[in-house]
Request: fold
Amino acid sequence: MMIKDARFITSAARSSQYPPENLPEVAFAGRSNVGKSSLINTLVNRKRLVKTSRTPGRTQLINFFLINESIMLVDLPGYGYAKVPEAVRRKWRPMIETYLTNRTVLKTVVLLLDIRRDVGDREHLFIDWLALHHLPVILVLTKADKLSKAVGNRRLHKIRLKINNPETPIFDFSAKTGKGREAIWQAIEAFI
Ligand code: GDP
Reply:
């Protein structure tokens, strides 16, 4: 994917704050610190389009980024970080669910998982929930550079077996080396 232009459009908590539904959207979801900002920045070839936050859980709104005037990348707030106050956490779920269930231009959800972690109950529930709402998933295994090639491939294989859905594309990815970037773009483009 050639990136000619990438810019932040807006942050939203409520649907009234979303931009108009003119363009196909791709949403990114994952637990805080999984590498979501780094993935989006790598996809769009920008160092700090999404501020890589060293304080996990700081991005508590839905952020919209316009790419090449033709695709909207949507950064959903990270979930599951213990240090986030309960009151904040309680608002997340409806905020994310409202977006995912009402957005007619949403084409696919990129779900991020650290390649070193097993697919947890939370991720399984989320994947089932997305299927129920007919939202295709792309699974991205982040921080692949933290493992050797052999161990990384074993993890990829194991997670693929666990997900057990041939329609779900799964990629290993590294923001450090750029591994997986092109393949992830191709999967995204196939859905839009
Ligand atoms: P977010 O909270 O999901 O947006 O995660 P960030 O993108 O801010 O990354 C969280 C931490 O993981 C940061 O310290 C990043 O530098 C690091 N990180 C993210 N992606 C990678 C990766 O592919 N490889 C390595 N080694 N570290 C990464």
Remarks:
- The mean pLDDT is 91.
